[in-house]
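Run log, item B.
One chain of 443 residues. Sequence copied directly from the ordering sheet:
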Amino acid sequence: MATDVIVPTLGESITEATLGQWLKKPGDAVKADEPIASLETDKVAVEVPSPVAGTMGEHVVSEGDTVNVGSVIARIEAGEGAAVAATPAEATVAESDVNPAGPAETPALKSDPMAPHAEEGEGDEGGNLTLSPAVRRVVLEHQLDPSKIKGTGKDGRLTKDDVLAAAKEGKARSSESVPAQAGTQEQAKSTQQPSKQDWAPASAGAQQGGERREERVRMTRLRQTIAARLKEAQNTAALLTTFNDVDMTAVMEARGRYKDLFEKKHGIRLGFMGFFVKAAALAARDVPSVNARIEGDEIVYHDYLDVSVAVSAPNGLVVPVVRNAQAMSFAEIEKTIADFGKRAKDGTLTMEEMKGGTFTISNGGVFGSLLSTPIINPPQSAVLGMHRIEERPVVKDGQIVARPMMYLALSYDHRLVDGREAVTFLVRIKEALEDPTRLLIDL
């Protein structure tokens, strides 16, 4: 007797999602409450657990399909299924896939590049080599051996960031040469959920006799929502950005002096975000409109600071909320943000953690950004953009000296925040960061 697997309740006002990835294939053994599929909503990825133990039955829907809350997506059959194979069936690259024009002209592949090599023990300790469509495509493109890459996702699964990092470092090269453009209809179907468009190398066309290729991939639900909200902000708010720069010498010296003691006591590294969140809390107290929102013909002010912190996830940026940041210690802020970052990669952030937020901080500096104009996250009225720190010549006491400088950008809704207030807000942050003692004595 089969048991239906239905789409669970996904949160307030959310009625549908996208089937992002099957974590179990038909015939696999399944334990009760073991995740069998990943759903993508407009905010986060949600894993669907098996309601009973048994064998994975048919997949009622395919990856990339839209499903409604309460609908049946799979069935679990009674009895014990086969142990999960080390190599996913969908990861097999057939000989004819490599050379569709003539398989006799191309030697058969000795092994699947998606599969771990039996003679190599490293890289697969406790890892899960079930690859998502986005990860699989990047592995193929860079011709890597996924068994040699350490996964940082849930249960050791590989994320797209893991693969890109390995490719950048020149690690985990596959011993087999697989053309980046090799693929079948089955592979094309499996690439409907990547977080962004990935293009094959320029040399790929030459390998197909000069063929020029295009690829269409469906936007993930998260990406669709990001696009809609960013466009809504542009259409609704009177966006303006003001800039300043800050000398990070004092903050870097404080981190260097106390980072070991801080980590020993609190079990977390002392980063920059704690300083910026505390500085934003002080600045928002002096310029409350930056931490307010427009609702109809009224302005709603907050006596608390709920900071939406933009963190990178496999399918795009997400913004979990650090609540009551004005009352938190450095250690509490750093622990909360580190936990958000880890769970964003795992796809385990909850709906509740994504709701609300009165102000946003986005750190483009971790990706190397020198300067940007961030877009506000409606209904918020402002977003602070951090950027990379680099030594630049500045004048101090009449002398030209090299200092670690960072550009700051504050984008704001000019309907609510005046230019004078925006500049004042940034100056308050600059003062607090250049003299961190202000953060301790509440100045």
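Observations after the first pass:
- DSSP finds twelve helices and 18 strands in the chain.
- The longest helix spans residues 249-266.
Flagged for discussion on Thursday.
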